[in-house]
Every structure is written in structure tokens, then in C-alpha cells.
Design brief:
Largest sheet: 6 strands, parallel
Organism: Prochlorococcus marinus (strain MIT 9312)
Distance between the termini: 36 Å
Family: Belongs to the NadC/ModD family.
CATH topology of the largest domain: TIM Barrel
Number of strands: 12
Number of domains: 2
CATH architecture of the largest domain: Alpha-Beta Barrel
Order of helices and strands: HEEHEEEHEHEHHEHEHEEHE
CATH superfamily of the largest domain: Aldolase class I
Pathway: Cofactor biosynthesis; NAD(+) biosynthesis; nicotinate D-ribonucleotide from quinolinate: step 1/1
GO molecular function: nicotinate-nucleotide diphosphorylase (carboxylating) activity
Radius of gyration: 23 Å
Helix content: 25-40%
Strand content: 15-25%
Structural class: alpha/beta
Shape: elongated
EC number: 2.4.2.19
Strand order of the largest sheet: 6-11-10-9-8-7
Length: about 290
């Protein structure tokens, strides 16, 4: 994630403007010019947000200096000191809530993701995220997902084409849908087709999908048919059929992910890291 891109810089500016607005009304009460503080973890987890927090400090006051005792993606424990900061007291106070909020949120996503990724250990299956993210925070939440060991699915409607249930309902057939997307998109465009049953999955393969997403299918049905889908892509004589088919599973209960550790599956996608994760409790303490 490049924090120097205009869109990310603008988002962080908006966070600061939202909280500080026309100015911190408590500033006149602060008599100490400079201060020392540190962040401490009130519970364990996987950390995310080092460079983001540095950018917040820099935007609020270039005189804030920070020393991080942890890197993104690293595990931390309760009562662990995560970072130390020094600078103008008023600026440290102004940066406190903004920095803690984003760190607690993103670390919660990374921690939840890591717990799911651990359940895939010993397989070739990767955990992928979705577009079900908080408006305005997608790029940060997807970064947190990666810090937890997952892989990013498409960022938006612009970097991969996914033909989902509602698209299928409003198109004449999958073959034509794929052809039209190929005709009107860069040659690098990856096409994913969501299938709600095996027959639809087979149709997706023959239509030339790069990925087939098996949505809300039982592990028994997937186990029985996944190799057939793979063979169909490998043995088809149709030139548009992708021989390197990616098979993805989605719409499953995260608590039942162990039932889907099936040979032949490449990805399991989940929105739960963003929609079901809890913030990790962190706090800033001042050193007198």
C-alpha cells in the first residue's frame, strides 16, 4: 500500500479533519510543551497500521517522533508496549484517538483473518477477501486482511469482472456475457463466474471463465464434483476454455471452514474478517 498516492493521503486528511475540525478545544489547558507516551495492548492479536499511524503523526505535527516495537503482521500479547512517541503534548493528544481507532480496527481484521488462515494450514487453499468492506476504508481493510495472512480478491468493479447471480438473471447466456466482456475490456481482464449449482459451474467453465466461484454449495457436493470441473477445463477442445482454472468457494460459515479443506479448491473467500471481527483494545499511556 503506497501512502503517497493522492487518494490515500486524502482519506487520512479526512480522518484528521473529522476529529480535529476547527481545533481541539482542550489545547489551552495543556501546560507541558513536550511529552512522552506509549501504546500498550490490553489484549493479544496481530498488529496492523505502522505506516498509516506514522503518516497520521506526520500530518498532524512533523515534530512527533515515534519508535515502533512491532511490525505489521506480527503477533503481540496483552500488556506489550507497541510503540513509544515523543513530541509536542498538544499534538500527541490530537493524534491519539485517530491513530488508535484505525490501529484497533485494522488489527482486529488481521487477528480474525490469521485465525482463519491457521485453519487452512497444510493445504494449498488460500483465504481471500471480498468487496464487502466499509465505504472509504476498503484499501485499508484489505491491507489488514493481507497482514493476517490472507490474499486480496478484486479491489473493485474495475480490476476483475465477476458475473454474479443478478448479472446472470439479466443476461441472455454466459457464453455471450463472457464474449462481450472480453470484447470491451483489456486483454488482461480476469473473468469470474459465480455458480449456485454444479451444472451452472460446468457452463461457466465452458464459457471461458478464468475462475469459477462455487457459492453456498455443501462440502459433499464440492467434494464429489471439483475434480470433474478441473478435468472439464483441462480436456475441453474449445479454445476459449481456460486450462488454468481457479476454483473458489464462498458463502460458507467461517465456523465450518474445516469442512471445506478439499483437494482441488484454490480459494475460500469470506467477508467475515471485515464484517464479524472485533476491534483489538489498545491504549495510550503518558509518561510523566
Amino acid at each position: 500500500m503506497d501512502l503517497n498516492t493522492p487518494i490515500i493521503s486524502k482519506i487520512i486528511d479526512n480522518w484528521i479533519d473529522e476529529d480535529i475540525g476547527r481545533g481541539d478545544l482542550t489545547r489551552p489547558s495543556i501546560t507541558e510543551e513536550n511529552g512522552n507516551a506509549y501504546w500498550i495492548a490490553k489484549e493479544g492479536g496481530i498488529f496492523c497500521g505502522v505506516e498509516i499511524i506514522k503518516e497520521i503523526f506526520k500530518k498532524i505535527d512533523l515534530n512527533i517522533s515515534s519508535k515502533f516495537n512491532i511490525s505489521d503482521g506480527n503477533q503481540f500479547f496483552k500488556d506489550q508496549k507497541l510503540l513509544e512517541i515523543y513530541g509536542p503534548s498538544k499534538s500527541l493528544l490530537a493524534s491519539e484517538r485517530i491513530g488508535l481507532n484505525i490501529a484497533m480496527h485494522l488489527s482486529g481484521i488481521s487477528t480474525y483473518t490469521k485465525n482463519l488462515v491457521n485453519k487452512l494450514e497444510g493445504t494449498n487453499i488460500k483465504l481471500a477477501d471480498t468487496r464487502k468492506t466499509t465505504p472509504g476504508l476498503r484499501i485499508f481493510e484489505k491491507y489488514a486482511f493481507k497482514c493476517g495472512g490472507g490474499v486480496n480478491h478484486r479491489m473493485g468493479l474495475y480490476d476483475a469482472a465477476m458475473i454474479k447471480e443478478n448479472h446472470i438473471a439479466w443476461t441472455d447466456n454466459l457464453n455471450n456475457a463472457v464474449k462481450k466482456i472480453r470484447l470491451n475490456s483489456p486483454f488482461t481482464t480476469h473473468i469470474i463466474i459465480e455458480a449456485e449449482n454444479i451444472e451452472q459451474a460446468k457452463e461457466a467453465v465452458l464459457a471461458g471463465a478464468d475462475s469459477v466461484l462455487l457459492d453456498e454449495l455443501s462440502p459433499e457436493i464440492i467434494q464429489k464434483n471439483v475434480q470433474e470441473l478441473r478435468d472439464l477445463s483441462m480436456n475441453s477442445l474449445k479454445k476459449e476454455v481456460n486450462k488454468n482454472l481457479i476454483i473458489e468457494v464462498s458463502g460458507i460459515n467461517p465456523k465450518e471452514i474445516s469442512k471445506y479443506l478439499i483437494k482441488g479448491i484454490d480459494l475460500i473467500s469470506t467477508s467475515s474478517s471485515i464484517t464479524k471481527s472485533n476491534w483489538i483494545d489498545l491504549s495510550m499511556r503518558y509518561i510523566n
